[in-house]
């Protein structure tokens, strides 16, 4: 990659909100896991800058998503519960990832693994959705606006309501098309 392309990519990461959020989360994770002594402190400062810039409350060290998009980040609460996905996940404004019972043994186990929320590929969390973990969401799921997900979703589809119920099987990849595709399952590296 030429120096010009690298500079253009870096400037894009700093300018465009979605890319800037992704860049800061990745940078925070780098410091948390790769820089001894001061890394966790720098990571916390980067996370605080996400909060002050975009109102994203996150502990980036607990986010392990192959391709994450937070295009409209206002009021997003991810916290430090642990979000994992080997695929593409889109989070819209006002999404809350919370826990219902912090003393629950299943929650404590998943929290220690940093996988309180496990998502498949092509998962879209629409504006205002609230997810109460621990829970798992399979591939090809759209959670509609202002919906409450309080149990795992094991069948693809569009889910709406309080609590969320499947209202359609028609899920496209339109929301994740701009993100890099994850490696094929069971394929060779």
UniProtKB/TrEMBL annotation:
<dbReference type="InterPro" id="IPR011004">
    <property type="entry name" value="Trimer_LpxA-like_sf"/>
</dbReference>
<protein>
    <recommendedName>
        <fullName>Serine acetyltransferase</fullName>
    </recommendedName>
</protein>
């Amino acid at each position: 990659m030429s120096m010009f392309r690298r500079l253009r990519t870096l400037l894009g990461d700093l300018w465009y909100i979605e890319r800037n959020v992704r860049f800061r989360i990745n940078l925070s994770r780098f410091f948390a896991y790769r820089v001894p002594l001061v890394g966790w402190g720098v990571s916390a400062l980067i996370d605080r800058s996400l909060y002050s810039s975009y109102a994203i409350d996150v502990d980036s060290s607990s986010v392990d998503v192959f391709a994450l998009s937070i295009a409209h980040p206002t009021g997003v609460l991810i916290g430090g519960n642990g979000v994992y996905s080997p695929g593409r996940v889109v989070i819209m404004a006002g999404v809350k990832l919370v826990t219902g019972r912090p003393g629950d043994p299943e929650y404590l186990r998943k929290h220690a693994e940093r996988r309180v929320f496990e998502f498949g590929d092509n998962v879209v969390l629409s504006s205002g959705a609230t997810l109460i973990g621990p829970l798992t969401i399979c591939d090809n799921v759209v959670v509609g606006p202002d919906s409450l997900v309080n149990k795992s979703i094991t069948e693809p589809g569009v889910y709406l309501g309080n609590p969320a119920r499947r209202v359609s099987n028609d899920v496209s990849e339109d929301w994740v098309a701009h993100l890099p595709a994850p490696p094929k399952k069971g394929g060779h590296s």
